[in-house]
Amino acid sequence: MYKKRDSKKSIYYLCGIIISLIFCILYFFQLKPLHTFDLKLYDILFILRGEERPSHQIVIVAIDDYSLEKLGRWPWSRDIIAKLIDKLSENSPAVISFDIIFSESEKNDYILAKSINKAGNVIMPVVFFFDKEGSAQKEIILNSSIRVINHEKFMEYAPLSSKKVLIPVNTISNASAGFGHINMFPDIDGTIRAETLFIEYYGHLIPSLPLKTAAVYLGIPEGKFLIDATNGIYLGKRYIPTDKYGRILIHYYGGNQNFKHISVIDILEGRVKKEDIEEKIILIGATAIGIYDLRVTPFSSALPGVEKHANVIESILSNKSIIVTPPDLVIFLIILIGLIGNLFYQKFKAVYSLIILMVLVLITFSFSFFLFIFKGVWFSYLYPSANLVAQFMVIIAIKYAYSEKEARHIRKIFSNYVTERVVNELMKTPSMAKLGGEKREVTVLFADIRNFTSISEKLQPEEVVYLLNEYFGAMTEIIFKWEGTLDKFMGDAIMVFWGAPLEQPDHADRAINCAVEMLKRLKELCKKWNNEGKPVFKIGIGINTGEVIVGNIGAEGKKMDYTVIGDHVNLASRLETLNKQFNSELIISEFTFKRLQDKIEKNLFGPLFIESLGEITVRGKEKSIKIYQISF
Q1: Which of 33, 87, 131, 561 is 20 to 30 A off residue 166, Cα-Cα?
Q2: CB 590 within 8 Å of CB 626
Q3: CA distance 390 to 392
Q4: Among the ranges given (149-153, 166-170, 244-248), the one the predictor scored with the smallest mean pLDDT
Q5: Closest to 308 (Cα-Cα) out of 190, 218, 212, 182
Q6: CATH number, residue 539
């Protein structure tokens, strides 16, 4: 027994280790289907967290539908943009950043350049291309590059690199205070979750527009704006941890319109208070339907790109960047959580193991959610949770295989006592093999050999056993034919019942047919035994129908019998003994008679004769009971 248990445990542990290693490998290689699902689960963390209120230091000046209605279709003349910058500058913004590239010349470029130069704090966007090389290096954007420290690591892990860039026309570029790229790199499902903080261009690292804007807003001098290769970025005393390629997960504050929006037309027509602009970061971009770049984020399926920039800037200024859990820690937790689940699944049955699985998955998710909300750490709960589910399924399957083996053992045992149908019912409902019971109407039959003690005294022991075995074998065959439950052999007596464990509405009919066939078969045996010179005997049968308690009774795990108990069982036994008094073979109670009266009168049981034997008084009962003799 102990070896069997140890063998099972070894199999459980081995399967658990193999499954955990599989999920560690899947996590390491980030296969596309699983990685996509993992990212969707990451989005759920944002949704459950809900929107957060950003600070008031960022204002989006929107090229919205209302402005287009007033100023005409986009693009507008550059003198309108110049007027917009002049109006903003009157209210002393800290920095103005455009999410619009003025890449084609226009007659009013000089007017716009003049306004940009006068403002002195306008950041212009650039866009890098990666499919082909440019015709010439754009020297002007190199002044916005970031100085690198830790060169050895930087050379080992090169960032995203480009040789071609789109910038504003020279007149505008020369007037700008700096540049930042607005390239966005969606994940495999099209969602923008990360910001590439810099891109390498001819050996120089050009920051993203949000990073450059934040640096100008904070007044970070060149010597304090540094890249610690593969680790992070220094903005003065602020440190932004990045992955080894200079990316950060964006701490989204919400969806559309989560930041303060001011329409361009309201700026131009002077309907804005100074405090709405003063010392603020101004982001100018399109939000009107049809002219802005739609971006999918965890909060929105159509977020204007300028709002994405606002979220990045806000997270930088608020030190709320999201850090990815180190891979070695995730792998450790996959193995640890899997081991915990494995231990529980071994000890508990399927239903309880399922509950434990749900609890462990909930704990894993809660841990991930806690880290995300309070620590700004993304812990992927997909792989540990999937490991728990896989281990649950495998261990339950192994348990089922073991239980099937045990079921075959049960079948082998019970098939000696009940019909195949009953065995199959036990296989379908294993709970029948446990302690417990229920009230049910059944028909009980007792059969006993008359004067067998005196007969056995005249025979050798082996002859007694042979005679009984032949008799019990024949009777058992008949009992099983009528699908009775052979309760037990009691010396030379037999106890049988119908109506349990299977429902048998005709249980009384079956009992009578079985009893008649038993008596006929005994006569055939007696004729055979007489010819063989062996002693013959008679039997008495008592049958009663009534409500009893039926179920497995005994010591669980030791010895149990599926049996019936109650007054109606005792009455059947009493009727069997009355055959001696009335010199009869088969006596039934009035309860069984009432169930069969119509069928007996219609001769549905063949040529049976029924005769009333009067009434008897049963111990413990005030009312006497009628009994009947059946012969054929």
Answers
A1: 87
A2: yes
A3: 5
A4: 149-153
A5: 182
A6: 3.30.70.1230
Specify whether 406 is located in the same domain as 510: no
- Determine contact, residues 508/544, Cβ cutoff 8 Å: no
The residue type of 140 is: I
Q: Report the mean per-residue pLDDT for the chain.
A: 88
**Residues 392-440: pLDDT tens digits?**
999 888 877 766 666 665 565 455 556 666 666 666 665 554 445 788 9
CA distances in angstroms from 52 to 256, 491, 534, listed in the order given: 12, 83, 99
Q: Could you tell me the pTM of the whole model?
A: 0.67
Listed residue (308, 156, 180, 123) closest to 231, CA to CA:
156
pLDDT in tens, 566-621: 999 999 999 999 999 999 999 999 999 999 888 877 777 777 888 899 999 877 67
Domain boundary among 267, 287, 317: 317
> Given pLDDT bands bounded at 50, 70 and 90, which one contains residue 63?
very high
- Candidates 313, 386, 529; CA nearest to 20 is 386
Tell me the C-alpha distance between 480 and 336, whole Å. 54
- Both tokens assigned to 108: 């009013």
Q: Torsion angle, CA of 359/364/370/372, rounded to 10 degrees?
A: -140
Q: Say if residue 280 is in the same domain as residue 178.
A: yes
Phi-psi region of 144 (alpha: psi -120 to 50; beta: other; left: phi over 0): alpha
Model pLDDT for residues 448-474, shown as the tens digit of each residue: 999 888 888 888 888 888 899 999 999
Confirm whether 48 is domain-assigned: no
Pair 121, 18 in one domain: no
Tokens of 266: 């309201």
Asked if residue 38 belongs to a domain, the reply is: no
Residues 204 and 180 in one domain: yes
Give the count of domains, the chain: 3
Is 76 found in the same domain as 190?
Answer: yes
Between 294 and 284, the more confident residue is 284
Of 292, 317, 342, which residue constitutes the final position of a domain?
317
d(CA 537, CA 328): 83
**438 and 364 in one domain?**
no
